[in-house]
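Narrative progress, year one. The postdoctoral researcher (J.K.) led the effort to move from monomer predictions toward full complexes, under supervision of the PI. The following entry was the first complex the group processed end to end, covering 957 residues in total.
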Amino acid sequence: MAALLTVNNLNVVFSMRFGDLRAVNDVSFSLESGQRLGLVGESGAGKSVTGFSIINLISRPGRIASGSITFEGRELTTLSPEEMRKLRGDRISMIFQDPMMTLNPVLTLGAQMTETLLAHENITRRQAEERAVETLKKVYIPSPDRRLGQYPHELSGGMRQRIIIAIALLTNPSLIIADEPTTALDVTIQAEILDLLYELTVNERMGLILITHDLAVVSQVTERIAVMYGGRIVETGPTMAVIDNPSHPYTRGLIGALPESAGGQRRLNQIQGAMPSLYHMPSGCAFHPRCPLAMDVCAKETPKLCETGERGTLTACFKTAACEAASL
Amino acid sequence: MFAFLIRRLVQAVLVMLIISFIGFSLKHAFGDPVRDLVGVSVSKEERDKIAEKLGLHDPVMVQYVRFLKNALTGDLGYSYFFKKPALDVILSKAPATLELVFAASLIIVFLSIPAGVYAAIRPRSFLSRLIMGSSIVGVSIPVFFTAIMMIYIFSVELHWAPSFGRGELVTLFGFWPSGLVTLDGLEHLIMPSIALSSIMLPLFIRLIQAEMMEALQSEYVKFAFAKGLKTFRIYMVHAFKNTLLPVITVGGVQLGTMIAFTILTETVFNWQGMGAMFVEAVERGDTSLLVAYLVFVGMVFIVVNTCVDLVYGLVNPMVRVAGRK
Amino acid sequence: MWKKFLASHFLWSFKRDWVAMASAAVLVLLLLASLLAPVIAPHNPYDGTNVDIMEAETPPVWMEGGTSKFILGTDAQGRGILSAMLYGMRTSLMIGLGAVFLQAFMGILIGLFSGYSGGKLEAFLMRLADVQLSFSTLLVAIFVGAIFQMVFGVASYEQMAVPLLIVIIGFAEWPQYARTVRASVLAEKKKEYVEAARVIGLPARRIMLRHILPNTLSPVLVISTVQVANAIMSEAALSFLGFGMPVTRPSLGSLIKSGFEFIFSGSWWITVFPGILLVVLILVINLLGDFMREALNPKLYKGA
């Protein structure tokens, strides 16, 4: 199968007055068409920045410092702003975190849906409205034709997120990037939205990058997973393989912190300490100050992704994977 | 919307009652309606008779109710100086003020929107810094000083523009003396309208810039970029439309400031409008006219503010729909 | 306390902002000049014996006919402009600061109580604040000034002008404070520490004064600077209209007024110099206010 999206050695920096902060560090991954990838990590791990950098929408003062992003055979990092605009919302769509903030409060849903089509396709408003109604049916919005004249505040959060998904689907993109699409929603509605995302991406054979801090969410929807920590991917592989047999100490910690894995224990296992900020990134492996297995070398050198015992998974760890440190 | 409207109306009536009460108390305590009517050279008995006829010996509340009744029928008292009903005097001065406010509003709207929007979109550019820098200087110059400096530079030294009055007027529709249709009238309008707009303009530029910046940082604008919309549409439809709501609200509030500044501007340029009339009424001790102006401005105010609320309701779907249910 | 201030973000950003530093320097200079006006002014403009009508409308020293006795020239009565300006600025500042103290006192008290306890009276006062704000503070000040002048008569109004102007401007602008303080009290009230103080049974007055009030200080500080500028501006406008300081005890506004008619005969300095001083004074205060708004970044009540 041909790769839909290939990200190679992506580096994103935020240029501050006192120097550059590296938010995404040497990140590489690829996605085949119709494949679903989960990008997992705590906030500040660089997963959202990675997602936004694909369509070059990193907020200032961030910029892609180096690396390449190939999508459907085209190099994205060198596209002109206008070429990038034509791609956004057409071939690659995004779904944002908070449905209450994502829709414009003073525009009707109809206007916000049709404008996407009108920006990318040469069709009339009438045709665009028909397409919008069709798409609303796909996301199971009741009485879809009535919705176009409504305003966002007339709908609940879950309904709004369905509208946003519908907007993402309008142009039949080949890739959807969903940034924490369920975080702002009630638990019951979270499940509905995830089911919907799964169903739609499978039926329409769309690629999906699901950015989340929630391992449970990823395990429900995606085939592959990439765990990020301190701007790097620390473990990647088939979702079930990684979750059943995590090899990076950080991934183990994340899974140990899930309620279901705590078993009969009274307390959840939690990782000691907190995610380092970009201002104070530790040397070597960024996780070493919190790592129960840390060795001296972990503070000096940064491990690259390397094979583990588990088939198809890669892990960046000197201890649990076959990573070799130069100084050893 | 209906309940909202009713609430606004009740408040408007209450405010009107308070203003009329202040006006009435002033008139009651300091005005002399007999003098207003017949002057001072009348014997005491004669005056008493007239006072009796006017009901000036009635209980205060009775007089207040009469004052209100009269005000509702458009009778705001009698100007001592002009020897005419106060409302007639005010209405004869209104066109001058309205034309001045109209010209100044045009300047404000057509300059503040592009300047504010531009400064928000390109906050780091040289032009934006210039706009924002001069706007803080602008709000720091009192409107009457701007006016004086303009008169000194452009009238006294350069002789470019006339320094006072409205110039040649043409009566439109039989009652509206207008300076907008003659070249001389327009020339006279230039400096006063620029002076009047000089302090409101920077205020609006700063407001539009701040609101627009906030809108540009919102998630829905980011989402609009992610949808691949053209940048112009994102700025004008997504960001600017959200900027309008607070600007309309503040615009309504600024009407009072505008009236205050017309008083100053008209005084400097000797522009024969309501503002100059008010200052003269105070100087001449024309209590009836002063009270009439107070009540009149209060009335205009409340009507305009209620209209602004309605427009706000029309533009803001949240108010509109909340009322529909 | 002082050490904490030295290490603060506030001071750090102040040192990086040359506009703020220059404004502060100019403001300190102007404050000193008005405080020391009786000492540094070349003449006493209130003293009639100093004034010689023969010296009226003398131009500034660098112009033809100017003398070094009156560096910035004289006005129509022969008073030195420079001295009149120094004394005028003193009057303007006195009224401006006095009015701000009054409005801050009223506004903070009402804002604090209406935010914390929210009784009927406070609710009424806040409605009043809304209505008053919607009329614009300057318009209210002009109306009240005009009414007072009518009530007291021009002569006695002029005698009491300073306290009256403080009352008029203070009364016209208190809603700004009330709104700001109320908003931050409402925000503070929701926080846990206030809840905790209430649970352990501290009296409401103590909670307000010791716990809530200090937290409303930074927005109060920010609007205070702008309010001083506004008050000085309002005083100048009132004086210019003739509802303010009399020409015999001029503020900057009444100096501008008294010089206005003379620009037609070319004696521009009588009105222009006091005008420039007024603009500079308001401008540096506004610039400092802008800086404080950005440095302290409180959530201010929007609009109005």
